[in-house]
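Researcher: I'd like a structural prediction for the single chain below. Treat it as a standalone chain; there are no partners to consider.
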Amino acid sequence: MSNHTPFSNDSVATSSPEADREQEQCARGVVCSLKGPTQFLSFWIAIALPFVYLPLLTRGLGDPQVTLAFFLLLALNVFALYIGHGYGE
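Model: Treating it as a single chain, here is the predicted structure.
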């Protein structure tokens, strides 16, 4: 008696070390190709965001919506500084 199933495992192939290496290099290539532009954009966003704070601060932080916008922009600025800190090295 044979143990045949109606499902085929032809689509599941064992991967070779060469195929794994190629896939890893491709993934690294994508990450490396996005790293430069992402750091560039984050760096300049971190430079420009403080100029957006000025109108919010002159308006005052008494309004809850203005205060929320200020703190969200501040958090975005910290994140952009973290991502863009290696730009130009």
